[in-house]
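Project outcomes to date are best conveyed with an example. Our students and postdoctoral researchers have been running inverse folding experiments weekly, and each run begins with a structure described purely in tokens. The record below, which covers 492 residues, was selected by the lab manager from last quarter's runs and is presented without edits.
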């Protein structure tokens, strides 16, 4: 604690965000001491803000450190371009600054002042060559004011980021639903810390441990909670693992979604947003097929009283189980960094931007519609690996090797955001497009679900079908011919 209190800090950026941050640090007295601002604007050099001097540009940091040594630098330029961030980071790192933190992007607090608790260690995702959408959180979340909002998978990457941003929406209650108690504990604790630090507005936080697959429980809990809006983020999603556990993928992602949707319809939930994936477009794996089915279940559910919609997008940088944490761990252990194929590429978006767009789409979206987020251009995985290796101070191929391992079960070389029979149409909202499409399965969705049900849930009269992986895949392939059939798949 003493080390934190006595920590000496440079704030990079003497604009409004930097000034607010410096004022909070000074008033609290527990985060350390701001000894100076660094700012590239020559007109600011030599001036003082609340007794804190603006030394000059970041490029001169080594000279500044001779007279004012520090332990940490905080980059407080929320609208900085990735090139500027790369340059600033390189200068700070070269000068030997041990801890480099950053305030979140502008879109995350455009309607409210920044807080020290929102700063975090700078990360490779901050250099993503993509300008994030700037969204007024308070304005886009106006439809949630005074509402009871349920987030399934609240302990996961998307669910937890939605929860953080929902603090700004003025919701009456946030129901945090997850089947994993530790993840739920962590996000509830984090949200309470944010609230105590003055981030967002007051909302009651209610953690709920439960299983989507338990139909009776889902009916009970939706009736009890009286949620007005549901953001359904919970899913089993790791492709190779779900290829090896295909029945579990369908049981959770399809029938779990069906249980939630049925309860939401029964108890008149007014708005329901399913978070989906690009892998639902022409799926080649069971996970993708399970999300395609989940999309259809939700899109068929809209009524005059309920607005059900789907938001589909690609990969999220730094989400749990994604390649960024994997690469980070591999680099920390000395490598090699594993990439499936030199030509493999993926769509990527930062976690804050994806959550902001989901929340925006949830408010402006129309019932029964499927929306797709504009992910920009695909990024080569090998380029991302090389960028991360350099970020941590190593040379790709010399200090840290890149090893190509081949595509895994269910993998594809390149991804697509929509199927050949789906047509994207621009909306009036940046980065949010609508997909013009026809319903799938020719009206046989209910029949397909009933055919799959005894494989996932034991029916004594059809006991031989229970947990049968081969039967599951053969049924899915009959309806979704793009699914690949592996050689020698076990029966169970």
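After processing, the design step wrote out the following sequence:
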């Amino acid at each position: 604690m003493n080390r934190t209190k006595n920590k000496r800090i440079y704030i990079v950026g003497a604009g409004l965000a930097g000034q607010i941050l410096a004022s909070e640090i000074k008033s609290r007295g527990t985060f350390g001491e701001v000894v100076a601002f660094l700012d590239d604007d020559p007109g600011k050099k030599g001036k003082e803000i609340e007794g804190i001097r603006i030394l000059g540009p970041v490029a001169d940091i080594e000279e500044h450190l001779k007279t004012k040594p520090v332990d940490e630098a905080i980059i407080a330029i929320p609208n900085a371009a990735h090139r500027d961030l790369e340059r600033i980071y390189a200068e700070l790192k070269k000068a030997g600054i041990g801890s480099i933190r950053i305030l979140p992007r502008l879109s995350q607090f455009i309607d409210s002042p920044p807080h020290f608790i929102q700063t975090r260690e700078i990360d490779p995702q901050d250099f993503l060559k993509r300008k994030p959408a700037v969204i007024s959180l308070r304005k886009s979340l106006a439809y949630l004011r005074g509402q009871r909002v349920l987030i399934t998978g609240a302990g996961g990457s998307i669910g937890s980021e939605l929860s953080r941003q929902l603090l700004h929406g003025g919701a009456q209650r946030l129901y945090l639903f997850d089947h994993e108690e530790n993840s739920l504990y962590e996000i509830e604790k984090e949200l309470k810390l944010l609230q105590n630090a003055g981030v967002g507005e007051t909302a009651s936080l209610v953690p709920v441990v439960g299983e989507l697959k338990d139909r009776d429980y889902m009916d009970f809990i939706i009736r009890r909670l009286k949620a007005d809006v549901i953001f359904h983020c919970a899913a089993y999603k790791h492709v190779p693992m779900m290829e090896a556990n295909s029945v579990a993928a369908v049981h959770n992602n399809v029938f779990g979604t069906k249980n939630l949707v049925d309860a939401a319809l029964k108890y008149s939930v007014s708005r329901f947003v399913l978070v989906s994936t690009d892998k639902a477009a022409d799926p080649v794996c069971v996970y993708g097929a399970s999300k395609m089915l989940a999309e259809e279940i939700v899109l068929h559910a809209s009524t005059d009283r309920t607005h059900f919609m789907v938001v589909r997008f690609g990969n999220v940088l730094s989400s749990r189980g994604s390649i960024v944490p994997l690469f980070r761990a591999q680099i920390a252990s000395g490598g090699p960094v594993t990439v499936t194929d030199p030509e493999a590429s993926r769509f990527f978006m930062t976690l804050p931007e994806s959550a902001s767009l989901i929340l925006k789409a949830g408010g402006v979206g129309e019932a029964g519609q499927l929306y797709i987020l504009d992910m920009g251009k695909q990024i080569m995985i090998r380029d991302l690996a090389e960028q991360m290796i350099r970020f941590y101070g190593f040379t790709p191929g010399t200090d840290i090797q890149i090893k190509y391992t081949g595509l895994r079960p269910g993998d594809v070389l390149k991804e697509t955001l929509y199927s050949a029979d789906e047509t994207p149409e621009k909306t009036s909202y940046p980065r949010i497009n609508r997909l013009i499409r026809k319903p799938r399965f020719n009206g046989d969705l209910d029949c397909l679900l009933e055919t799959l049900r005894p494989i996932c849930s034991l029916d004594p009269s059809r006991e031989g079908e229970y947990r049968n992986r081969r039967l599951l895949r053969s049924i899915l392939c009959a309806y979704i011919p793009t699914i690949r059939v592996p050689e020698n798949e076990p029966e169970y």
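The CA atoms of residues 333 and 400 lie 10 Å apart. The mean pLDDT is 93. The training component of this project remains on track.
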